[in-house]
Amino acid sequence: CCNVLSFLFQKRHYYRKICRNNDICYWLTAGTVLGAVRHGGFIPWDDDLDVVMPRSDYNRFLRIASKEIGHPYVLQTQLNDPANQTAIARIRNDNSAAILHPYIDDRIYCHQGVFVDIYPLEEVPTDTRVLNAKMRASFFVRRLRRLVFSTRRRPFLGMVKTMIARGLFNLIGAKRFWRWQEDLWSGYSGAKSDYLVGAPGIRYSEPKMLANRFPYHCCREMLWVPFEYLMVPVFSGYEEILTLQYGDWEKPVRGGAAHGSAIISVDRSYRDVLSQKYGFELTRFLRCESVDAVL
Fold first, then answer.
1. Is 285 in a helix, a strand, or coil?
2. DSSP codes of every residue in 18-41
3. pLDDT tens-digit series, residues 55-88
4. From CA 70, how far away is CA 94, in angstroms rounded?
């Protein structure tokens, strides 16, 4: 993991520079906050870096980063890499690998380099019916994408479902589908929420939503804490947030990496690993392109 964390820290400088130069507000989130306040940097067994930003700054970051990021880095969203199954933005390194096994099992062709997760911060609807409806819609979107972009062989009924899903996706269009998916949570206009959550579109069930939300009052101010040899922003109420998410977070417990048994390499690209070890076709991988035109 040490090589991976060093690799991520290099990208951290790149990401931080874009935010600083363009006055984009962001905070560390999830396990990266835990690492910052408990270890003074990365959790030794972690394999990614997580940041969150308000929706308006998130949209602005995508527009700017799509122009400023260059090889070997790429900005990945579900618009410029539609087969990607995660409804957040990521900065990835083209010359590395962070391959999740479900992508191998379903033969999904998308960018799978080592990454930084970037979450949009959204309000959680106070009306349970609205919340459940949005989570069901998010689950439907996830299932549809997996069917559309999976290339593994399926039994007859599975093939029929895949054909229907691809027909529906093509009818809607990739850009319109992505825009609707983004607006699903950012367009919430109910009563003022008491809770916020990073990337609600990837929380497909009530337990996942409840485990990852945090009280609004915890996010009103920003604190700067040491992270490796930098000072980085976290929510002022990070102690309450970490207690809600991890329980007794001050006591280190050796666990698995955030993405389980992912295949990680900083020396070989995901294309090389997938083609040489799993028989993926190199020509089917698409390079991520600018998302500026549709935001």
1. coil
2. HHHHTT---EE-THHHHHHHHHSS
3. 888 988 888 888 877 778 888 888 888 888 778 8
4. 10
